[in-house]
Every structure is written in C-alpha cells, then in structure tokens.
Amino acid sequence: MKRNPCLPLVLWALLCSPSAAQADDTRFNAADINRLAEVSEPALSRDGTSIIYTVSTANLERDEPQSDLWRVRYDGSGRVQLTHTPDSSESRPQWSADGRFIAFLSDRKVDGEASDDDTKTQVWVMPADGGEAHRATNLPSGVEDFVLSPDGKQLAAIAFDPEYPPGTKKPKHPLPIVTDRFQFKDDDTGWLGNRHKHLYLVDIASGAATQITTGSHDEQLPAWSPDGKLIAYVTKRGADPDRHLNFDIYVIAPRAGAKERQLTTFAGADLDPYWETRPAWSPDSTRIAYLQSGEDKWIYYAPWQLAIIDVATGKATIPAPIDRCFTKPRWSPDGRSVYALIEQAQVTHLSRIDLPSGKITELTHGDRFDTDLDVSANGRVVVLGGDSLHPPQLSAVEQDKLRLLDDPNPWLDQKHLATTETLHLQSADGTALDALLTKPIGYVPGRRYPTIVRVHGGPVYQFSHEFMPDWQVYAAHGYAVLAVNPRGSSGRGFEFAKAIYADWGNKDTQDVLAGVDRAVALGVADPARLGIGGWSYGAILTDEVIARDTRFKAAIAGAGSGNMYGMYGDDEYAREYELELGTPWANRDAYDRASYPFLHADRIRTPTMFQCGERDFNVPCIGAEQMYQALRSLGIPTELVMYPGQHHGLTVPSYLRDRMERNLAWYDRYLKAVGAGP
C-alpha cells in the first residue's frame, strides 16, 4: 500500500490507454477486494509479551469469509498463525491471566461429531503456544459472547434461551414464528420472539453450565472484575425493553442464586451494545469505565461520552466532557488514566485521558483512522489503525510513536494506489464542511474526469482517512471520487449531527451538492459526467439527492429506501422512527419529508441501480423494490439486484466482487463515452 514513485506523464498517458489499463496489474481492481486481510480484536497477554488477534480473509474455494487466530510477540518477532480451519472461523480471543492458554469463539465441529449445517458457535480453549483445542461449552443455542474468570477456571457466557425444549428432537421443519414483541426482528439475530439472551457460568474443566440471569430481557457484554468477585453486564429493563434505549450496567456475583444490582441510572443509554465496547473494570475492581449516550430522543445523534462509575456508591462522572465520541476504553495499570479512541473530523485517534484533570493527550496523530486497542497489566499499549493507503495494521505505541507489529497486506506495496486529499468548503447557507477527494490514477492537472460522489451510511457516521477499496477501484479506472461529510455526520459535535434530525434529505442534500460544486470549480469533476451512490443511509440520501437534482447521469442505491411509510414495521427500527419521526398516522408531515424520493419519484431523471441483501432486516429489500418499481413505471433506466441470503452487510466473496464489477459497469455505461479508456 505504499505509494509508488511518480512516473513521467508520458508513461502515465500510456497506462491510461484501454490496452495498457487492462494489462496493468499494479492497479487495484475488483478481484483485489477479496485479497484484503482484516486484523481485529487485539489482546495483549497480562505480562505484555505477546498479542493474539483475529485475521479475517476470503476463502475463495468455499466462497465464504473466514477468520483465524494469530499471535505476535511485542518485540515484533514470532508472528505465527495459531488456527488453521478452512471450514470454520475463530474470533474473540482472550488470554488466561497466567498466559498458559487462550479461549475463543468458534463454529468448528468436535472430531467425530455428525455433520450439521447448523453447528453452533461455542467457546474453545487451546494452549497459548498453539496446539489442539477442545470445546469448553456446549450450550444448546451456542455462545454469543464470553469472558474468562481471573483464575481461568470459569467463564461467563452470553447465550440465547434454547430454541427447543430440552430433551426434544429437532423437528423436520422450523416451528411457526410467533411473537408479541414491539421489536420483532433484528438483522443479526433474525426473527425475535420470547427467547432472550442470558448470562451463564461455565466450568471450563467439566463444561457444566449454570444460568444466573433470567427474565424477558437480554444481557450482553459481560466483564469479570479483576478480583473475581463480580461480573458486569449491560441490559435494558422496564415494562417493555423494546420500546426504549435505556441500557444500564448491572453487576452480579458469579454464583447461582446471586442477586443482581443495577449500577447506572442515567435516563439514556449507558453502554449501548451498538458501540461494541464492553464495561472496562479498573485494575483495583472499584470503578468501571463505559460509554454514556444522550437521552433516548436523540438516538445516535448525541456523541457518546466516556463515563466512570464507582461500583460501591453508583456515583458516575464524565472526566473529559468534550463534544466528541469515545470508544474502547482501557485502564492504565495505575488506575489514574484511561486509554480510548476519540473521533474528530475525518480522523479517529488513540488518546489518553487523565482522570483527575480530564486532560486528553493524543497518542496517534495525523490523517489516520484507529479502530481498536489493548493495554497490558504492565502498561504496554497496542493499537489497530490505518489510513487512506493502508488498511488497519497492528502497532505498538511507544512514547507517542508507533512500531509496526503486523501488516497483513504486504502485497499492496506492489499496487499503485490513489491518494486522498481533504477539501474544506461551505454549504449554501454558510455551514463549514469538509470532504475527501481521491483523484484518478494518472491524474493530469487541468483535465476534467468523470466523478463518483460517495454518500456515507449512518446517518451519524463520517468518511475518514481510512482505506476504501471501492475508491481505489474507481480511481484505477479513471474516476475521481468525492466523499462529502454533510450535516448529520459524526466527528463535528452534537449540533452538526442533529441538524438533520427528523429532516432527512434537506440540509444534507444541500451539503452534498455544495461538495460537487467545489469539485467542479476545482476543475477536477466533469459536470456532464457525475455519478452518485451509497449503501444504507448512503442509499437513502442518494435517493433524496436524485429526486431533488437532475445533474447526475448515474446512481447506485444499495440497501436504501425512498419511502419511510413502507419501512415502518418492515425493518428493525420502529422504535427509532417513533423517537425521531413519531408514528406515520400521527405525523404525516414528518413521514412525507422522509419519503420525498418515493412521493416525488416523477422528478427523478437519473438512471439508477438498486441493490439489497435478501435477508436484510436493517434496511429490507422493500426499500429498493419500491424505488425500482417507481422508476420502472416512469420509464427511467433502472435495475434491481438482490443478493441471496445476505444481511445488511454483504459477506460472500463472490457477491462482493460482483457488486464492485457491477457498479463499475453501471457507471461506465452512463459516465464514459463508448470506447473511452479509464
């Protein structure tokens, strides 16, 4: 992924010809997307000598994603793959406190066990140096999450209630789906009924499991205190937990019959599981670091803050109240500071927060996007992070400098990648904005290029200085890529994010168009060859933009919708709709605004491809289907592409490549002259 030396313009002109582009394997192409390896879940041993982590790749033979466990020493030596299971995956590795073994989740089968396509994910353990693993749990519905006890003899697991009564044979056909819940579907879990996720204690030696929480609610994100006396977890309670977002942290002693105790009392989300951040115990087991969101009304628009709570008294504080988002808190060994990731405009950096003073010190710098971290008991720190030319890499943090431990994609060094620059601009009403501009490979100043405007999901998310494979493919094929962070984006504070609250497609459309105007004014974007596209809210906003502006010659809307009337009750967001928009029957104006693209489809002139995952409960296919049907009725060129068996995020390698190639062909069809090169 390193930049290749600049080549003379004559050579670049040759490379940009059709024949040269086809023969040039130094450009990033659609097939390269499935060559990328992703590092995640770093875990330092207690003594800080080694790190275990997950590496996810595409198994092209099986056409499935696959993840394995790797280990590297803190000094950078001894990098080794610990698991080799082409027919299963391992994830969420954890060290025993004494460093003798590691535990992890896997959907592998026990030797000699009958083949079953519905094999459940369980906890497995193996020697820390590698070797044979054995299954530590055998819960009927599998294990969703777990944490080891400090003495390594037990684990606390999160598992669903059994699907079938104990001792009964699995029926030939699934049982009828029956529910009376307000939220009755979830993109990860599927259909929701009266089965819930609860906390179990499992003896590692015997596999004996004891359920220690019950009820019509779910427990998530377990965390065992260092002294072994308490397990913390996150749950929603009340008459109907589906109707609110008021997550709280509870604690319970690790024994059967123990009584749980509610720890947090803020009337909003205390550690929403959406942020994938478990409660972080202080080294002395007296405090917990966690993330506190805003009140329910603001859903995900309010930045989530680092909070510290005293376990004995329940007193909570916000040590560094800044208008930005924190994630992944980890304590320093002395308990005086917390390490966390903090999001700013276009970047996310690892920082250290001094608790007595609230002072924040950045430990990583520049145009980068950090995704995870860990801290050992002796104070060693590792971080996962990358930039626009590098997918996340594992590095040691030493005196505010990074020392690379693992780059899982060294082959990218042989690829010529497009660079990305930041644009600063203003919207029509004077609001300050930023955008990222990736110029095509072989860019010649003064020449205009077909330009693809990318729209991010969320809506509370942002484009950052991170590696974007699709941008590299587009740039390699002669496109400029423009990515605006409109109002509604994160990284700029609460007021900026909530500017689109209950008013989608208005100010954020203005901001996207302001970015387009800037790219045209710079002489990069060709105003006659503009395309636009996005996934999730990026597709929702794409629909909004093309219904309000006809300048775009091609659009691709993936997993989106232009009709929120049709989404209410069909996706997983009825609660969020009611909090932000109200109900469709009582708040027609709000739903009319949110459904502008469908209700005004007759204003669309842009040829548009709609895409979706067949099993997506996040933004179901009905959203793509309705917009496709509207454009087909109006005679606007359109296509509908549905990926079988896929949820909101595509995972099948052949589908990922198909989507990239299909998108490229759609844009080529409408943005490039016949026979033109990249």
Automatic annotation (TrEMBL):
Q: Which Gene3D superfamilies does the annotation name?
A: alpha/beta hydrolase, TolB, C-terminal domain
Q: What is the lineage of its organism?
A: Bacteria, Pseudomonadati, Pseudomonadota, Gammaproteobacteria, Lysobacterales
Indicate the secretion signal residues: 1-23
Tell me the GO BP annotations in alphabetical order: proteolysis
Q: Which residues form the Peptidase S9 prolyl oligopeptidase catalytic domain?
A: 467-672
InterPro entries linked to this entry: 6-blade_b-propeller_TolB-like, AB_hydrolase_fold, Peptidase_S9_cat, WD40
GO MF terms on file? serine-type endopeptidase activity
Specify the domain of life of the species encoding this protein: Bacteria
Q: Which organism is it from?
A: Dyella japonica DSM 16301
Stated name of the protein? Peptidase S9 prolyl oligopeptidase catalytic domain-containing protein
Q: Which keywords label this protein?
A: Hydrolase, Protease, Serine protease, Signal
